[in-house]
Specification:
The chain is α+β, with helices and mostly antiparallel strands. Helix content is 45%, strand content 14%. It has two domains: 3-172, no CATH class; 190-334, no CATH class. The chain contains ten helices and eight strands. α2 crosses α5 (90-109).
């Protein structure tokens, strides 16, 4: 999730073992440790633009790395803040960092991006799809409650933060199951047999969900708004799944570009297709500003004139925020 969400959940975890006088100090240690795993964004290459994708949410987010990541954070923070805050015991600093760091990978796994929790034993990208990568309704109440706990030195604000996080994650799970039921009913109504089905919350809410499934060598995208009494459905669109022999007959299957397509396929959980607007671009159809459309946020660009060892180019699609945000709002409220 976004750095602020990581920070406030890390702070909440650290406050769980702090006494009243230490709530503010624990929050600082937990917040900084809670964000630290995302330092993996510094791993990048000027020639291989997919390297950053491979190593984001990689080893630094795995469960087995938590004790070591927390140790690095604790050593640095205890050195910088320990004497100023009169923290006598390194163990205390380490435990705050351990709890803060431990929240990072688990929180990321609650989104749909994919997190390698089981590295190095598995490179599977865990994604539970119960919360958007950015969700102010989750983050802001948590931030307020953690800040109040630190400022007032009253633990009941911390308990409120814990209750809010638990409630929101539980609601996300319930909504996920409801959206999945809508998706399965849609597939049955269409008389299709789906190979893969995914549902994920749209940007910054738990009401409007994106449906993606594969059937008949096509990917289908739809959207549903989950109401209390009735759900609304937008049928959406479809696109052929990538077939390299059909879509890219010029591609040398032994080239670096062919290898990069498979790297991008792994990153995108298999949901890749040829861009209808550009025959040299491959898109990740999991993400779009509007959940009932295929308007990708990113993709890779191939070059038919490239040398055998040339890499593909990762790109971010141009954003049309104002128009799409207005449409998204209408889908939420109308």
């Amino acid at each position: 999730m976004d750095p602020l969400s990581q920070a406030v959940l890390g702070a909440a975890a650290a406050q769980s073992i702090a006494n009243k006088k230490q709530l503010a100090k624990a929050a600082v240690f937990g917040a900084l440790a809670g964000m630290a795993a995302d330092l993996d964004v510094l791993i990048k290459s000027s020639s291989d633009s997919l390297l950053a994708l491979e190593y984001h949410r990689h080893f630094s987010h795995s469960l087995i790395f938590i004790p070591l990541g927390a140790l690095f954070c604790a050593l640095l923070l205890h050195l910088l803040l320990g004497r100023y805050w009169q923290l006598r015991f390194f163990k205390q600093s380490y435990m705050w960092c351990l709890l803060g760091y431990a929240t990072h990978g688990l929180l990321d796994a609650c989104t749909s991006y994919g997190t390698q929790l089981l590295w190095p034993f598995s490179h599977y990208r865990v994604s539970w799809d119960i919360i958007s990568i950015i969700d102010p309704l989750f983050t802001l109440p948590l931030l307020v409650l953690i800040a109040l706990a630190a400022a007032s030195k009253k633990r009941h604000y911390y308990y409120g933060a814990l209750a809010w996080a638990t409630l929101y994650f539980s609601l996300g799970y319930v909504q996920h199951e409801r959206a999945l039921a809508v998706a399965k009913n849609l597939i049955v109504d269409r008389g299709q047999q789906a190979t893969f089905i995914e549902v994920k919350p749209s940007f910054a809410n738990l009401l409007l969900w994106k449906i993606i499934y594969q059937a008949d060598d096509h990917y289908y995208v739809a959207a549903t708004r989950l109401g209390l009494n009735a759900n609304k459905l937008w049928p959406g669109v479809s696109i052929p799944r990538l077939d390299i022999q059909r879509d890219l007959p010029w591609l040398d299957t032994g080239s670096q570009q062919a290898k990069d397509i498979e790297r991008f396929r792994w990153f995108s959980a298999g949901f890749i297709a040829l861009d209808p607007t550009n025959p040299y671009q491959i898109i990740d159809i999991r993400y779009s500003m509007l959940p009932n459309t295929i308007a990708p946020l990113w993709g890779i660009r191939l070059n038919p004139q490239a040398a055998a060892d040339d890499y593909v180019q990762f790109y971010n699609a141009p954003r049309k925020g104002s128009t799409r945000a207005g449409t998204l709002w209408k889908m939420l409220v109308e």
